[in-house]
Amino acid sequence: MRVLSIGRRAVAGLVVVLASGLAPGLAPGGAAAADVHVLTSGGLTAAYRILGPEFERATGHRLITAQGASMGQAPDAIPQRLARGEPADVLLLAAGGLDALIAGGKAVPGSRVDIAESLIGLAVRSGAPRPDISTMEGFRRALLAAKSIAYSASASGVYIEAEMYRRMGLEAELAPKSRKILSERVGSVVARGEAEIGFQQMSELLPIQGIDTIGPIPREVQQVTVFSAGIAANAAQPAAARALIAFLASPEAREALRKTGVEPMGAQSPASPLSTSPAR
C-alpha cells in the first residue's frame, strides 16, 4: 500500500487550529507533548496508520495504540480491554460498539463523532477461482459451493451470523461450515488456506497479502457500518483526544480514509450535536 502524505504544512496548520480551539494548553510552537492512548478496531486501522504519524509530527503528541474488535468476548476486544482497566483516551470502533460503551459508562456521553462508513467485502485466497458476486444469485451460488467460510468476531461477523444467513434462507446450509475468527484478520485465515471465503470490512481485507478481495457483497444483503470515535471515560488526555478526533473527522483526512476503503462522513465538530442514529 502506498504511504499517503497529506501535506505536513496543511496538517500542522489544521492541528494548531484544533489544538488552540480544543485544548488551550497546546500553544503553537510550544505545545506540551502528551502520551495519547488509542484503542482502535480494524475498520479504521489502515487510515489511522497513515493519519496518526501526521498528527504526531504536527503536535508533538505520542500515540500509543492497541487494536481489538469493536465488540465481543475476545481478550483483545475493546470492551474487554476497557473492562480490565487498560489506559485509553481515544476509542475508534463501530458506532454500535461505542454506543454500548457510552451506555455502560466506559466512554464519555456526547463524545461520539462519526468518521466513516464501511462496506462488508468478500475475499478468496490469491489464485483461487474468483466467484461472481455481482448478483444475489451468483452470491448464493458462491456461498453454497464454498467448503468453508470465515467471518469476523466484530460488527460484520455479528451481522452475518445473526441476520444475513437467515435473510438469505441459507442458515442451515452455511452455519455448519462457517466459523468466527477471534483476534485475527479474516484475510490472514483465508491467505493460509484455512477458509475458502472470508467476510470482513473492505478496509480490513484490502491490506492483507495473499488474498484477492472480490468486492463488496450485494447491496440486497449489504450492511453499512459506521465507524466512530469517542473519548474514554477515564481518559488522562481528553483535550489531546478531542484534537485527534477532530483531525480524523476533518476534510484533510478524507483522502486517506477513501484510499483505505472507507467513505468519510465529513468534518464534524466534537462541540456540535452528534448523530445518535445506530449503525446500519
TrEMBL record:
<feature type="region of interest" description="Disordered">
    <location>
        <begin position="258"/>
        <end position="280"/>
    </location>
</feature>
<dbReference type="Pfam" id="PF13531">
    <property type="entry name" value="SBP_bac_11"/>
</dbReference>
<feature type="signal peptide">
    <location>
        <begin position="1"/>
        <end position="33"/>
    </location>
</feature>
<dbReference type="InterPro" id="IPR050682">
    <property type="entry name" value="ModA/WtpA"/>
</dbReference>
<protein>
    <submittedName>
        <fullName>Substrate-binding domain-containing protein</fullName>
    </submittedName>
</protein>
<keyword id="KW-0732">Signal</keyword>
<feature type="compositionally biased region" description="Polar residues">
    <location>
        <begin position="269"/>
        <end position="280"/>
    </location>
</feature>
